[in-house]
Structure prediction request, 414 residues.
Amino acid sequence: MIKQAIFLVGGAGTRLGSITRSTPKPLLELAPGTAFLDLLIDEAARHGFTDILLLSGYLGGQVEQRYHGRRVRDSRLRVLREEEPAGTAGALRRVSAELDPWFLLANGDSFFDINLRRLASVPRGSALGCLALRHVQDTSRFGGVTLEGDRIVDFSEKRGERGPGLINGGLYCLSREIQDRLPAIGSLEGQVFPSLAREGLLLGIEQSGYFIDIGLPESLDQARRCLPQLMTRPAAFLDRDGILNVDHGYTHRPEDLTWIPEAREAVRDLNDAGYFVFVVTNQAGIAHGFYTEAAMDDFHAEMARQLADVGAHVDAFYHCPYHPEASVARLKTPAHADRKPNPGMILRALRDWPVRPAGSFLIGDRDTDIEAASRAGLPGYLYRGGSLRMTVNQAWAACAGPRPKLGGELTCAS
Ligand SMILES: [Mg+2]
Prediction:
């Protein structure tokens, strides 16, 4: 499972004029107290990238002060500063010793709303990298990319050539082996990627999520207008035992994980559609002393690994270890607010995350699941066996109309 995400945040942002004289571009605010980079980091963190590196340069002290050593959800942040500008390829080369075998690399001045786990799970064969590409009506500002099958065969140098086509979305999954190809000073986009493409070593996947690059004053304005609203998402709340994994009775050993048919694909559909996915699970086995919370965490980590294999992820697991008949004294509570049918776990997720209620729903296999959803003001749907993917699609049809497309319906007037 790829766990490293690296952000290139060293650029000077000269096209933005005076506003980047005292603030590095990725630290420009979208709203009071919220930097553009905060949003990018939060996206990586919720997709399970726990080792986050920020490669800073221009005004790097500010980046270091804001982020170095911080934790965001389960992720740890480090800032690595370069003293002299070396371009995107040079910046990456300087941190060669830090690179995992495969890692996510992202531009710190653009946002592409995609399922990052899908990018990280593309079968790579002998390729050294895969780029997320976006179709746009006019490639002239960016330069075009030519895709043949799953391979990138050409990068058009001809900026200014108008017309629809694919562009580089600024999000890459790369092999550490790329380090041998990095110049001391130079550009990934202008030098390294075109050369890899000529050798057939670069893959591309077209993605349709919302894309914005804050390099120009008008696009920064648009980001400020649109992103705070776009960052709210509907959520799917999923019970765990009997919905994601087969319920063997107090299931907690990683080796006992058996997926419900098409459960992982259902989660990936939700991820692709831009939904938050939360697990809300009563874990009476902890209350009864059958296993510990640490053992449950190991089980969830195994679920995350196996989800990542297919390009899926869960944003957060909420569990209730309390039970009225608990044998572990501290967990004995008559009717804990978190224990379904009480809605505590759902209400907590609604406080913890920017959830858009419209389109949100729960899927469970017991009446207590459905009741918890209803007490939280959400529709609940009973899974009755078969493909979980079908049930998710039925829930979509019932509560949100036709299945939404990531970014597709979240249009924002520019
Ligand atoms: Mg269940």
About this structure: The chain is about 30% helix and 25% strand. The chain has a mean pLDDT of 92.
